[in-house]
């Protein structure tokens, strides 16, 4: 069976100093070769060889990362197909951009468990393991599904839904013109097509731009560290960073001057909001970043509320505890290396035990407990789901690019006076690409739209 | 009381648009065929609109013709008006639509059937099916005649437990006051078939002499009409077409309807059957689209030798007195005389997921169903299924492999796959938007898509096939020639480009590149560089379309290719989904119900996820390896 070519990240994210993008299928070597800058040409590389070079986006000449590329030719590979593995620097930015580039160049994001499925179908995996293969597909799909559902409620979806409705409205109108040519429904003009597509394009471009800046589509759990001055926010941040040995990104924001950093806590990527704010204020205690903390709080999916155990509970802290008790908040009781002055009962009143963590950021004690608590809250202990967020984001970006290019084709076709039923093909594929981002939540049907909006009949 | 009345290879029950195609296909493939109908005067009767074709439907007529069916030839013989629709749009959605002389249409079809070898046409109401060991063996009529058969095709239209409704009046009846078929419906239920209850309707008919045409707008046919059949060369009556007429409902119409809604069976609860959304009654339209001030009404002649006019757009089941008031509120119809009252009709249909893609039922071996009984609406949809059921019944009798048309090969394939895979919860109408490869399923290339198949199964005679091959060769040669022909930026070429408003040439280009410019037509190029062989208008059109839209056509062909491997991956029909570890419960239930023949078909069942498909694939591989290992040992 001739298959298409698939890719996915093969290493757990946020861990380790390298990350691997695995590509499998007939186009694997050619596609990677097309973005690989090196002394050797991958197309002629022998099987089981490793090559040093750079991944570069041919469209804008931008270099994405310094990499090692391994070529394994069929049938001597895991999937028994041509396999190329690109080892990038660890962390998420490099691996995400490499994967995203490959997806834009015609490679399909692997379905959950698909490499293993192919290995099995191609006879690389023993018959006895068929059941295990099935279990893997099922469990991975279920997690992906849950995650997709969560994302469907997220901010990206909220921005995609209106773009899709404007497109389906246009499509329904076009279809009515085609299937009911004698009905008294005005013909869609090239101008209307152009305007609708261009407005959709603008919104998609905006989404992509924010995605590139890492503001919206960026992976990771948006996390705010809040607390009174001197509670130990910056020591906690430093401890977390030290623990991970790498601060993965440091991207200055554009909108409100909030600086974000992404760290990995036991494999779960956390996007820490306003880390600069935390660092600044730690130096000058008087400059309380209350306002900035507020802003961060509103955006956060996860809140780490840091309280100094060495002092009695402050009125501000009481207020925070009350405000945050219904959100995903973990109370970090810091400075356990110092004498306890805090009345814990006040905290326990609103927070269950598994949401209170004791640690000393300065001494690096208790960080494991924090890691467990975070896992507990988001993934019921499963770290893998975090990988999936990350991976599906790369897929979303590829799909947005695809929708964009379909719409560009549609605009061009409208300008050239191409018949409407042909332009429709491009509009429909843009609509479908956007629908793939929403997954099951997409749910609209063209026929429903046609018959609910237009009065047709014999 | 029963007596043995004869044995046949194939028996077709019902001589509507599905039945006649079934019977003709079967007989032409050499099977002794019996066509039974309740009333011999109703062969190929048009109980609703006197027209054939339009988008998607017209495509199907072309496909039937390309396969060697009759509908295209028959409408060409009997049309009173022909129009090509959508000419302002791309070639894929151009669509022929004919107004038929509904009486001539019937007579012409009946004559063809009567003259056909191996085909017996007989009046008789079938009341029971003879089924032994899950296999159909024959049929029994009301008069006690028992006919033996190796295969039976049911094409019962709206006759099964038919019930006519107008206003408060309701009575058991087939369309147009024909006898309904009650016992056959009971027989199907007894055999274990799940039946659905559907509804459709028809508008009143009015007398021509009572219409004031001055208040309406004329809708003439095309001056130089095209034909449905690839075989039709010229028809005399092209020069003598009848127009249709356009008018609109008035405020008064809407008021009358609103005032009488309590008497409308649609709203009083008298109608149980599900009606189609795309074919609503006028009362339905006025309620659902209350803000629309007026609705189009077309007045269409029903034939050359009749004064009856069909009032398109006014399908209704209002009481008779209200119908007359509605009619007379429409400009042009103020003094109209109603000749037939509109009505709604409810009927039983077989839930189509109980069928294989060959249209054979899963429950009874050798029993096929086609047309409205499968939940569709429309003469063309019926005929398209009819020819396929006839072909597959005949092939089954002859011990040949079944024929299934892919979704990428024809609207017939799209329709049948939709029906047997997804089922339908309203009468199913074909729309071009139901096809994912619309650009490949064009009106102009139905012969290229399906005539080789028609020839292979014996429905296209040798002489017609040779003609087809000649067309294909000439078209291909001309495309090749244009690829080779260079056009230089000389005076002649630049003048041609200037004349059609296209930018002047910068460099020498080949003919194909030049023809891809939207403004340039094949005829313009041919003037500068004439073809070496003679090309008919059809062939020229084909050359132009194939070149002009290559980019889009290629894109769709690639999609087809990508999905082909899924379509080719067969699923054994004895598979037990219950025991497949890992399949979701919903997927198990749906797969067991539909029993898809290929992974591609499985992928189109709603509720079957990509993960389920992966698991199914792994299971199939496992199954194949185990079977292969067992075979090697055994």
Automatic annotation (TrEMBL), chain A:
Binding-site residues for K(+), renumbered to this chain: 230, 249, 251, 254
Keywords annotated in UniProt: Cytoplasm, GTP-binding, Hydrolase, Magnesium, Metal-binding, Nucleotide-binding, Potassium, tRNA processing
The protein's Enzyme Commission number: 3.6.-.-
Domain of life: Bacteria
Binding residues for (6S)-5-formyl-5,6,7,8-tetrahydrofolate: 22, 85, 124, 458
Cofactor note: Binds 1 potassium ion per subunit.
Positions that bind GTP: 230-235, 249-255, 274-277
Residues engaged in binding Mg(2+): 234, 255
Main subcellular localisation: cytoplasm
Record GO cellular component, one term: cytosol
Enzymatic class: hydrolase
InterPro entries, sorted: G_TrmE (IPR031168), GTP-bd (IPR006073), GTP-bd_TrmE_N (IPR018948), GTPase_MnmE (IPR004520), MnmE_dom2 (IPR027368), MnmE_helical (IPR025867), P-loop_NTPase (IPR027417), Small_GTP-bd (IPR005225)
Cofactor(s) the record lists: K(+)
Biological processes annotated in GO: tRNA methylation; tRNA wobble uridine modification
Keyword presence, Cytoplasm: yes
UniProt-recorded Gene Ontology molecular function terms: GTP binding; GTPase activity; identical protein binding; metal ion binding
Location relative to the cell: Cytoplasm
Entry function: Exhibits a very high intrinsic GTPase hydrolysis rate. Involved in the addition of a carboxymethylaminomethyl (cmnm) group at the wobble position (U34) of certain tRNAs, forming tRNA-cmnm(5)s(2)U34.
Protein family according to the UniProt entry: Belongs to the TRAFAC class TrmE-Era-EngA-EngB-Septin-like GTPase superfamily. TrmE GTPase family.
Complex formation: Homodimer. Heterotetramer of two MnmE and two MnmG subunits.
Name of this chain's protein: tRNA modification GTPase MnmE
Organism, as annotated: Cohnella pontilimi
Gene, per the UniProt record: mnmE
From TrEMBL, chain B:
Residues of the tRNA uridine 5-carboxymethylaminomethyl modification enzyme C-terminal subdomain domain: 547-618
Required cofactor(s): FAD
Binding site for NAD(+): 275-289
Compartment(s) of residence: Cytoplasm
Binding-site residues, FAD: 14-19, 126, 181, 372
Keyword rRNA processing assigned: no
Any GO molecular function: flavin adenine dinucleotide binding
GO biological process: tRNA methylation; tRNA wobble uridine modification
Gene Ontology CC terms, in alphabetical order: cytosol
Any Pfam family: GIDA
Keyword hit for Isomerase: no
Function per UniProt: NAD-binding protein involved in the addition of a carboxymethylaminomethyl (cmnm) group at the wobble position (U34) of certain tRNAs, forming tRNA-cmnm(5)s(2)U34.
Family in the record: Belongs to the MnmG family.
Subunit comment: Homodimer. Heterotetramer of two MnmE and two MnmG subunits.
Protein name from the UniProt record: tRNA uridine 5-carboxymethylaminomethyl modification enzyme MnmG
Gene designation: mnmG
């Amino acid at each position: 069976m001739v298959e298409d070519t698939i890719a996915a990240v093969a290493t757990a994210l946020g861990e380790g100093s390298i990350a691997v993008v695995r590509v499998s299928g007939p186009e694997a070597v050619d596609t990677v070769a097309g973005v690989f800058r090196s002394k050797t040409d991958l197309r002629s590389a022998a099987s089981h060889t490793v090559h040093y070079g750079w991944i570069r986006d041919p469209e804008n000449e931008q270099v994405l990362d310094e990499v090692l590329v391994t070529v394994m030719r069929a049938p001597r590979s895991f999937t028994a197909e041509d396999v190329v593995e690109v080892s990038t620097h660890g962390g998420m930015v490099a691996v995400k951009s490499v994967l995203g580039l490959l997806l834009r160049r015609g490679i399909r994001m692997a379905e959950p468990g698909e490499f293993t499925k192919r290995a099995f179908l191609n006879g690389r995996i023993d018959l006895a393991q068929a059941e295990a293969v099935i279990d893997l597909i099922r469990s991975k799909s279920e997690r992906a599904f849950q995650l997709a559902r969560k994302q469907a409620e997220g901010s990206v979806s909220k921005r995609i839904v209106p773009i899709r409705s404007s497109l389906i409205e246009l499509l329904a109108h076009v279809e009515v013109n085609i299937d009911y040519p004698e009905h008294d429904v005005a013909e869609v003009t090239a101008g209307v097509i152009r305007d609708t597509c261009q407005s959709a394009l603008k919104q998609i471009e905006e989404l992509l731009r924010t995605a590139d800046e890492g503001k919206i589509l960026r992976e990771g759990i948006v996390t705010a560290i809040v607390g009174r001055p001197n509670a130990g926010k910056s020591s906690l941040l430093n401890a977390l960073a030290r623990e991970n040995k790498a601060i993965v990104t440091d991207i200055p924001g554009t909108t409100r001057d909030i600086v974000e950093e992404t760290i990995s806590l036991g494999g779960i990527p956390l996007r820490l909001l306003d880390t600069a704010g935390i660092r600044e204020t730690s130096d000058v205690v008087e400059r309380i970043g209350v306002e900035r903390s507020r802003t961060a709080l509103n955006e956060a999916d996860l809140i780490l509320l840091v309280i100094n155990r060495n002092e009695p509970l402050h009125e501000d802290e009481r207020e925070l505890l009350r405000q945050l008790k219904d959100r995903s908040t973990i109370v970090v009781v810091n400075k356990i290396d110092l004498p306890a002055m805090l009345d814990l009962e006040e905290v326990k009143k609103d927070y269950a035990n598994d949401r209170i963590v004791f640690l000393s950021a300065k001494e690096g004690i208790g960080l494991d407990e924090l890691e467990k608590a975070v896992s507990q809250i988001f993934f019921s202990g499963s770290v893998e789901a975090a990988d999936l967020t990350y991976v599906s984001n790369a897929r979303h970006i590829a799909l947005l690019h695809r929708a964009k290019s379909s719409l560009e084709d549609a605009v061009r076709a409208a300008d050239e006076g191409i018949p409407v039923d042909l332009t429709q093909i491009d509009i429909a594929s843009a609509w479908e690409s956007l629908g793939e981002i929403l997954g099951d939540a997409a749910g609209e049907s063209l026929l429903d739209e046609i018959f609910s909006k237009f009065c047709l009949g014999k | 009381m029963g007596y043995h009345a004869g044995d046949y290879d194939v028996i077709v029950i019902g001589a509507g648009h599905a039945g006649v195609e079934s019977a003709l296909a079967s007989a032409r493939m050499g099977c002794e065929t019996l066509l039974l109908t309740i009333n011999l005067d109703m062969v190929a009767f048009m109980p609703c609109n006197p027209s054939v074709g339009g988008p998607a439907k017209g495509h199907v007529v072309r496909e039937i013709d390309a396969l060697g069916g009759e509908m295209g030839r028959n409408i060409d013989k009997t049309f009173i008006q022909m129009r090509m629709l959508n000419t302002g749009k791309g070639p894929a959605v151009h669509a022929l639509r004919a107004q038929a002389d509904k009486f001539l249409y019937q007579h012409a079809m009946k004559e063809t059937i009567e003259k056909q070898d191996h085909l017996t046409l007989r009046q008789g109401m079938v009341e029971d099916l003879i089924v032994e060991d899950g296999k159909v063996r024959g049929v029994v009529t009301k008069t006690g005649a028992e006919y033996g058969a190796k295969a039976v095709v049911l094409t019962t239209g709206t006759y099964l437990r038919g019930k006519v409704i107008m206003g408060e009046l309701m009575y058991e009846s087939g369309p147009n006051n024909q006898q309904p078929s009650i016992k056959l419906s009971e027989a199907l239920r007894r055999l274990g078939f799940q039946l659905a209850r559907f509804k459709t309707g028809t508008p009143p008919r009015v007398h021509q002499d009572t219409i004031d045409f001055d208040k309406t707008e004329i809708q003439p046919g095309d001056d130089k009409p095209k034909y449905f059949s690839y075989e039709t060369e010229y028809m005399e009556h092209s020069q003598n077409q009848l127009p249709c007429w356009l008018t609109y409902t008035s405020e008064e119409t809407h008021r009358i309807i609103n005032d009488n809604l309590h008497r409308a069976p649609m709203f009083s609860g008298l109608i149980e059957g599900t009606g189609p959304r795309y074919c609503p009654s006028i009362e339905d339209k006025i309620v659902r689209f209350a803000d629309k001030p007026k609705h189009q009404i077309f007045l269409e002649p029903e034939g050359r030798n009749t004064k009856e006019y069909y009032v398109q757009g006014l399908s209704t089941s209002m009481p008779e007195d209200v119908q007359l008031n509605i009619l007379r509120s429409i400009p042009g119809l103020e003094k109209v005389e109603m000749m037939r009252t509109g009505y709604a009709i409810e009927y039983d249909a077989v839930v189509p997921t109980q069928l294989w893609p060959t249209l054979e039922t899963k429950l009874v071996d050798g029993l096929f169903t086609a047309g409205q009984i499968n939940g569709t609406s429309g003469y063309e949809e019926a005929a398209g299924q009819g020819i396929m059921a006839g072909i597959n019944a005949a092939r089954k009798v002859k011990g040949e492999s079944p024929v299934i048309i892919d979704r990428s090969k024809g609207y017939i394939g799209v329709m049948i796959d939709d029906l047997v895979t997804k089922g339908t919860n309203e009468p199913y109408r074909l729309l071009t938007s139901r096809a994912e490869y619309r650009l490949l399923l064009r009106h102009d290339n139905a012969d290229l898509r399906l005539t080789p198949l028609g020839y292979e199964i014996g429905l296209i005679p040798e002489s017609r096939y040779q003609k087809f091959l000649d067309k294909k060769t000439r078209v291909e040669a001309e495309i090749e020639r244009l690829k080779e022909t260079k056009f230089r930026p000389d005076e002649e070429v630049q003048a041609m480009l200037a004349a059609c408003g296209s930018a002047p040439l910068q460099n020498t280009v080949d003919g194909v590149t030049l023809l891809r410019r939207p403004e340039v037509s094949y005829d313009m190029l041919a003037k500068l560089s004439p073809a070496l062989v003679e090309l008919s208008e059809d062939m020229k059109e084909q050359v132009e379309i194939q070149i002009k839209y290559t980019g889009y056509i290629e894109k769709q062909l690639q999609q087809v290719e990508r999905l082909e491997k899924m379509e080719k991956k067969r699923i054994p029909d004895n598979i037990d989904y219950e025991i497949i570890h890992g399949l979701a419960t919903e997927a198990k239930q749906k797969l067991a119900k539909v029993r898809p023949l290929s992974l591609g078909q499985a992928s189109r069942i709603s509720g079957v996820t990509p993960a389920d498909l992966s698991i199914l694939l792994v299971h199939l591989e496992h199954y194949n390896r185990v079977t292969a290992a067992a075979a090697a040992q055994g």
